[in-house]
Known about the structure:
The chain is α+β, with helices and mostly antiparallel strands. Among the domains are: 44-68 and 80-228, Nucleotidyltransferase, domain 5 (2-Layer Sandwich); 303-395 and 478-506, Nucleotidyltransferase, domain 5 (2-Layer Sandwich).
Amino acid sequence: MNYFLGIDLGSTSLKAIVYDTDGNLVARGDRPTLKFHPTPNATIWDPDQIWNDTAAACQDAVAQLPNPSAIKGVAVTGMGMDGVPIDEHGNCLYPFISWHDTRTQPQYDWWINSIGVDKTFSIGGNPVWIINSALRMLWMRENEPEIFKKTHKWLLIEDFLNFKLTGRHVSDYSMASCTMLFDQRTRNWSDELCSLSGIPNHILPEVLPSSTYLGEITSTAAEQTGLPSGTPIYLGGHDHLVSALPSGAFRAGAVMNITGTWDSVMFITSEPTTNPALGHAGITLQAHAVKDKYALWGGNPAGSALDWFRREVASAVQADARTESPSWEILVDLARSSEPGAGRVMFLPHLTAASCPVVDPKALGAFVGLSGLTKQGDLVRAVIEGLNYQSLDTVRTMEELTGSQAVEFLGAGGAIRNTFWMQNKADMVGRPYCIPEVEEATVLGAALLAGIGAGAYQDEEEAFNRVCRSQTVYEPDLKLTAFYAERFEIYRELFRAVSPIHHRLAEP
């Protein structure tokens, strides 16, 4: 039996998991990802902690195997944007500046005023975010000029792990898409953006497709990780795109909706659509970890809205003894007691501003349509419907701005256990809403990329079919789909109508 190892560098944990070619979990190791705060306003990752604990997690996983040489490939996935400067000898010159860190506000302001959102998106598909990699490089040049002068390569955090494993300086298309320096048309670094920003493109690594063979593990890395000498290393990709592979979200027209703390929409296309209107809508374009595919994605906080309602509004309901708040089961039962349309109540879910498809930092939440007949169940249902209208708004905006049609919907995230919420999504989109049965999708996706690179699978489709177990399918009630289509237009009109009022309320 052949095995493949996926390494996932997440914000809270470092995982090393071994799978067989049918996607069965064979062994695993875990370590925490530690954030450090050298000053009150700074958040960093320590390169030594990242590498040493990744190596330790690998050791734990490999030690569980009777025959470690059965591992035929390794690939790395994880978070985007965060990078590290290294000198020509491979030494780290500065810690990773974490995506939690907002020190790059001056560089963000400069980029907006000097290069602009439209130019940036038309080349790389990036809205300008304060956490983009290019802004970290500009911060380093301005605040640590001696370090910047010594920088031989700037490696994103996964690229750093691949460097430690193989000695090569390489990034993949999906990770390079995070930097704000990548050209989606040429699938290489943008000479224009590098020139405009003053970032020398010679410090950027080579860019190759995911699943590319990088080389054998070095003898030093083999000793530190416990992996056998000669183990092949393959190129992984950005975590949310890698997780799409075992979930089936890689065919053009597929929509993957990840619902949990955030409600994120990923829309798969075959062409890189760099219409700046997408950027103004808070939508990002990335090259997919699957070859010759691209992903549009955007999202908003979701679970926090229900948490807020549960904690602050539903206190009159019988409370869970442990939390002094109503249990989720009670809230869902209340929502079920309300008819579709929530007794004419609508909820705008912008409790922490609006991110997509309208970017509005002054947006606020609202209940509208209350009457003396409104019941608590109507309010719960209105919250869920409001979150789903917002998600549908993102999908419809992607369709409108690309001229493409969503053809299948796949669900993932912590909220998939809420059957009422998922059925409501199916009723709104008017198509079957499928929940693939996948455990640890991100790490499994990395293992599959290694397997594709090694030839264990002919392509992504074969890899998916080998590991796909089953899926739960929510069939839409098409009468409700027609009803929600009318209500959706009211939702869009409501957002526009109350925005001026919310802007005035938001003023100090």
